[in-house]
């Protein structure tokens, strides 16, 4: 009682993997996004955290500023 084993061609054995979309690389924000030079003076573009002190900039979220280190949030005044 020998049974015949059907051989499957190599092409059918390989399972095609779905291609993943290419990941977009994030642009690194350099130091130039935090400061601006005006007439030989350096101006900070974002406020520093009131709790952490100088050196810790707050992130600008449109309607508020948030510190990434301690989580302190300062809301912007609504303009009417």
Describe the protein:
With 80 residues, the chain is mostly beta strands. The chain has a domain at 49-75. It contains one helix and six strands. It has one helix at 10-13; strands at 35-38, 41-44, 48-49, 53-60, 64-67, 73-75. A four-stranded antiparallel sheet has the order 3-4-5-6, with no helix packed on it. Strand 4 and strand 5 (64-67) form a beta hairpin. The N and C termini lie far apart (91 Å). The model has no long low-confidence stretch (mean pLDDT 82).
Descriptors:
two-stranded antiparallel ribbon; 80 residues; four-stranded antiparallel β-sheet; 31% strand; mainly beta
Name the helix and strand elements from N-terminus to C-terminus, one letter apiece. Answer: HEEEEEE
What is the number of beta strands? 6
Query: What percent strand?
Result: 25-35%
Q: Could you estimate the helical fraction of the residues in percent?
A: under 10%
**Shape descriptor:** elongated
State the strand order across the main sheet: 3-4-5-6
| Overall pLDDT level | 82
The residue ranges in which pLDDT falls below 50 over 5 or more consecutive positions are none
Indicate the radius of gyration in whole angstroms: 28 Å
> Which structural class do the helices and strands define?
mainly beta
Main beta-sheet annotation: 4 strands, antiparallel
The number of helices is 1
Straight-line distance between termini: 91 Å
